[in-house]
Every structure is written in structure tokens, then in C-alpha cells.
Amino acid sequence: MDLNVHTSVMEKVTSLAKRRGFIFQGSEIYGGYQGFWDYGPLGVELKNNVKKEWWKTMVYGREDVVGIDAAIIMNPVVWEKSGHLKAFSDPLVECKVCHRRVRADNDEAIKDHENSHPDEKDIWTDAKTFNLMTEVLLGTTEPKEKSYLRGEITQGAFVNFENVINSTRIKVPFGIGQIGKAFRNEITPGNLTFRSREFEQMELEYFVKPDDDASAKTFDEFKEVRINWYKNLGIDPEKLHFHDHEPEKRAHYAKYATDIEYKAPFGWSEMEGIHHRGDFDLKNHGLKYRDEMTNEEYIPWVIETSGGVDRATLFFLIDSYREEGERVFLKLHPSLAPYKAAVFPLLKNKPELVEKARNIYKNLKKEFNVVWDDRGNIGKRYFAQDEIGTPWCVTVDFESLEDDTVTVRDRDTAKQERVDIDRLQSYFSDRLK
Ligand code: ATP
Fold this sequence. Notes:
- The structure is a single chain.
- By secondary structure, the chain is of the alpha+beta class.
- The protein has helices at 2-19, 41-60, 77-81, 84-87, 107-115, 155-159, 161-167, 212-232, 280-284, 309-320, 351-365, 378-387, 398-403, 424-431; strands at residues 23-25, 37-39, 65-68, 89-94, 101-103, 128-131, 134-138, 145-149, 174-183, 198-208, 240-244, 256-264, 267-278, 289-290, 297-298, 301-308, 321-324, 327-330, 341-345, 370-372, 392-396, 405-410, 416-420.
- A 7-stranded mixed β-sheet has the order 3-9-10-16-13-12-11. A 5-stranded mixed β-sheet has the order 20-19-21-22-23, sandwiched between helices. A 3-stranded antiparallel β-sheet has the order 5-4-6.
- A hairpin with a 6-residue loop joins strand 4 (89-94) and strand 5.
- It is globular.
- The chain binds adenosine-5'-triphosphate (ATP).
- Residues 152, 184, 186, 195-196, 199, 201, 270-273, 306-308, 310-311 line the site of adenosine-5'-triphosphate.
């Protein structure tokens, strides 16, 4: 029973995401392409807002962090040194009956698939490991040079470690923040954008002096910073928890690690990893730090927070989905909502209402992403805006012509209040803080 309810939430969100222009299947007119997704006009706004909020908290919000934007394709030596060519792999098993492949460590998928062959025993081949790096061939003459699309954005921060120190006045402890695309040859992409072959990450690599106690403290601090970020942006705290990695499940670089997991309709699922990478990466790249004051030289340790932009975007969509009677709405945090407000004239065929509403719309548009709507009746417009999570609807009616006020209707409570037109900007900015 529970499962059916959850499954239907996923189906409803998937259908809404397509219908209203959040997420489209990649290359859909050619039957799609497994593991690739396109963001539509509203999806790109939601995803950009997720990235903006991350940058605001993790880069602008801190004195000890600077940002970079490294290239997607790097010298292949980077991947040799980082260990990805050897160790960046997933174990895969294949069903002997239907040849379906699944990750050997995905207990749920294994069980699910076994249920589809109830009469068969011993359906799986032995596990084989598959490297997740996506190869690309560069150059115009044969043989072309083999390179890779980055499997994680992380290495960009390490290879630029010295550049960042030399070009800024930053000193350990400090962090490098980055947001960008990564690519993985995932064996079983699925659950909409949850596991894709092309996705975006938002990461902080934070460099500290090597010290067990101090680095453990930093690790714990960043766990809190990151889980609070999701909570402050409206994710239900009951659906968030940490999942510590057992030593044998840790990535090849991790000294210790925990995941922030979200209770998705398809089960508790990782949305961000927090890793203590020790000196693994800087050491492999032969990099060191020299403290200018003391002349002391050492290899800093790294605490990493590595979130998925697409997973966060998907979970913000799922978590905000609400049904109240006939009403469907996305209770998105206003900072994340694609449109901050919709502006309507009460009636489309009254030029004086339309003109006043157009002026309000144009003025608000200078500051916020607002949308114009004059189709159908007010009820239909509210319905359409609720469904895409627009926090406020502004209606210009006959009273507006008399006293320069408008009706502002709140998405979550459906309550309306009169607001002076010249107070509208501050009304929204106050609520977007
Ligand atoms: P998983 O175990 O789910 O494959 P991972 O542990 O390999 O994930 P990391 O390498 O720690 O993931 O990457 C950090 C973050 O990048 C993840 O928490 C997730 O949000 C995001 N991410 C990783 N792989 C994918 C993917 N294939 N599609 C979408 N997001 C991803």
C-alpha cells in the first residue's frame, strides 16, 4: 500500500516535470538516450536557483572559500594520478535469463529483478567491474588521442591548488568551490535524473592542516553546514539523514565518509557525499603547501562536500509536491521557485486593467523572474501557477484603478491580501531573504 502511494508520487512528479517544462527526456524525438536529460524553461530556472543558493552559502557566505570553473576535459595523466583509471568502477552482474544488467551492490534492484523470474534459480553471472570513465577521442589525425570526460569535478580543484594560492592571498585552512558537469558510464541509469550519465556536481574541497582531531572537527562542521542547507531550503527534515560508509564501501580516496540521504519514493538515496580525503589527492599530484609565516611545509588534508545538482533539483521537486483536494502545488522555497510571482489583469478585455498590470509586470521583471498570464479565469491561473510553485500571484482589479493596490495571493495558504503597488518590490524582496 505504502509503496503504491510512493510510486504514484514519483509518477505524478515525472508527469508534471514533463508537462510543465521542468525535465524532458534527452533527444526525445529520436526515442531518447538512456541516462541523458534536458531541462525545460522551468527546470533550468529551478536548477540555476539550486546552484545560486549553493554558491551563496558555500562561496559568498564564507571568507575562506574561493570559486573556480575548471575544464571538463583534463590531461589524461590527471586520471591516472587520481586513481580513477584503476579504481573508479562499479561491480556489475548480468541476468542469465534476459541479459538485464544491474549493479551487484544494488540489493533493491537485484531483488526486484529476481521477482520478475520467480521460477528461476541462480540467475546471476559473477560480478565484473566496469570503469565508469567516459572516453573521448581528440585530434583530427589517426591515431586520435584518448582522453576522458571528467568523472567528478573534484580534480579541477586539486590541479589548480597552486594557481589558486599564488593568485589570491588565501591560506590554509581554505576551500575551493566549484559547480560543473561530470560524466559517468553508469550501468543502470534510472529514477528520472537520479542516476544519469551526464550530471552536475556542486563541490567544496576544503584544505586543512593534517591533524586527526582538528580535521574530524571540520568534517563534522561541514556535515552540519550541508544538511542545514537542505533543511533551510525546505526539505522535510524527517526525510534527511546521514549514512556513514562502512570502511569496505568507501571510495578509493576516502579516509572516512558519510552520505546525506533523502527518503525518496524509491527508498533512502544519496544526494550528497561528505568525504575526508586525507592527503590522497595532493600527494598523488605531488603537491605541497608552504606556510609563509612559519616556512613549514606539509601536504594538507581535504574535507570534501560533494552534492549532485540534478539529484538535489529532483528531490526539491519531489519533496515540495502537495495535493490538497483538487489543488496540486509545489511548495518550493521562494528562492528556488522558477517564477517568484505571476501578474494578471482580472479581465483580459479591459485595457485599463491590462495596462496597469503590464506596468507592474515590467517593473517587477527588472528585479525578479516574474510571469505574465491573462488566459482563462483567475481560478485557472492560480491552478497553473500553483502547479509550478509560483509563491505569489498579483491581480490587478477595478479597486486597483481607484487606490493603487493589488491582490497578492499566497501559494501555500491560498490567502489574499491587498498590497500597495509601490510596496510590491519590497514585499517580495523581504520574503525572498
Ligand atoms: P552513487 O553511489 O549513487 O553512484 P557516488 O557515491 O558514486 O553515488 P559521488 O562520487 O560521491 O557519488 O558523487 C557525489 C555526488 O554526485 C552524489 O552524491 C550525487 O549527488 C552526484 N552523482 C553521482 N553520480 C551521479 C549520477 N550518475 N547521476 C546524478 N548524480 C550523480
